[in-house]
Amino acid sequence: MKIFKIGVALALGIWSQNYAQNYLNYSVANAHSHNDYMQDVPFWNAYYAHFGSIEADVFLVKDQLWVAHTEKELSPDRTLESLYLKNISRQLKLNNGHIYSEGSQKLQLLIDIKRDEKASLAALINTLKKYPEITGNPEIKIVITGERPKPEDFKNYPSYLYFDGDLNQNYTAEQLKRVGMFSESFTDLVKWSGKGIPRDEETEKIRKEVEKAHAQQKPMRFYGTPDFTNAWVNLIDAGVDYINTDHIPDLKRFMNSIPKNFYKNTVAYETYQPTYKTDGLHQKVKNVILLIPDGTSLPQYYAAFTANKRKAERFQHESDGIIQNKFLQRLRYRFCSGIHCFCYRRKNEKYICRC
Questions:
Q1: What is the rounded (10 degree) CA torsion for 301, 307, 308, 311?
Q2: Mutual orientation of helices 2-24 and 229-237 as an angle, nearest 10°?
Q3: Phi, psi torsion values for 126, nearest 5 degrees
Q4: 240-293, pLDDT tens digit by residue?
Q5: Local confidence band at 1 (pLDDT 50, 70, 90 cut-offs)
Q6: What is the 3-state secondary structure (H, E, C) of the chain?
Q7: Distance CA 94, CA 276 (A)
Q8: Which of these, 68, 103, 190, 320, could form a disulfide with 98 (CB 3.0-4.6 Å)?
Q9: Domains in the chain, CATH or no CATH each
């Protein structure tokens, strides 16, 4: 049992360091406005939320790129230039060359080409000639997704254009320089609905794809992901760089609350260490103390354990312990799942567990 408890303590300690640090690396700069043109105010909702990435689907119509999800929604007053390029240019001029007034955050414009790849790219390049403040600005990254050139043709396009990568594609070093990020269909990879936690094998699949992208020093994005808080938490756990959303205010609120929801204790309180001097003695018991916690399960113990620099009296007992049931993932979201059983034993007897 001692070995098990040491393993639990080490696992909890590792989780508290790695995952807490992972969360604190995230902000609205990791937020991606999926199909942004479908917002009630395209561009501006995401921009004023300080999102790091905005997506627009485009169709080539009369030598212009019109923005829409399907051809039925096409309208001449909704172009890439009118909804996005002009507004980005305006903000760059307003902020003295910076996309955001703070001057440190960058913006990625993900352009999803729906058809006519070569002609659409030619039209985009021709339009961008009017916006050197965009194409020459290191704070703006334009990434092409959807229909895009073959890797061997990346070199034929201006250096300010990047391309969405495919994790199943082997790129040369030069081609990889033109990959802006890697994207993959979430629903093709796993069937997780976003509720609870993914199955272990699904979590492993997600992490492996993220690791492939990071091994090539590129950010990772999944499209088609569940779009609510529990899903965002799991995606952050997996190290996904861009969190997809159609719900800009909700993801903004969630991302901005991350620093407020973490507490770092600077003082560790000494915990009681039993002496076990009376272990093995056969004598009348003087006092029996019965502690009945109300609604306390491992998440509460874990919170105290973490805040007290991984020291908690409950994890130092020789003769009681806890039953493990995939708790390391579940304890972050559910108050009563994972571990809520305590065990005890008498000398030379098996453990008896009460749940």
A1: 50
A2: 110
A3: -65, -40
A4: 999 999 999 999 999 999 888 776 677 888 888 878 787 778 888 777 776 666
A5: very low
A6: CHHHHHHHHHHHHHHHHHHHHHHHCCCHHHEEECCHHHCCCCCHHHHHCCCCEEEEEEEEECCEEEECCCHHHCCCCCEHHHHHHHHHHHHHHHCCCCCCCCCCCCEEEEEEECCCHHHHHHHHHHHHCCCHHHHCCCCEEEEEEECCCCHHHHHHCCCCEEEEECCCCCCCHHHHCCEEEEEEEHHHHCCCCCCCCCCHHHHHHHHHHHHHHHHCCCCEEEECCCCCHHHHHHHHHCCCCEEEECCHHHHHHHHHHCHHHCCCCCCCCCCCCCCCCCCCCCCCCCCCCCCCCCCCCHHHHHHHHHHCCCCCHHHHCCCEEECCCCHHHHCCCCCCCCCCCEEECCCCCCCEEEC
A7: 71
A8: 103
A9: 2-16+264-354 (no CATH), 27-257 (3.20.20.190)
- Tell me what the mean pLDDT of segment 150-161 comes to: 98
284-292 long-range contacts, Cβ below 8 Å, gap at least 24? none
Q: What are 33's strand-pairing partners?
A: 54, 245
- Quick one: angle between helices 229-237 and 248-257, nearest 10? 50
Q: Report the distance separating Cα 262 and Cα 269, nearest Å.
A: 19
Write the single-letter amino acid at 134: I
Residues counted in the chain: 355
8-24 residue pLDDT tens: 333 444 334 455 557 88
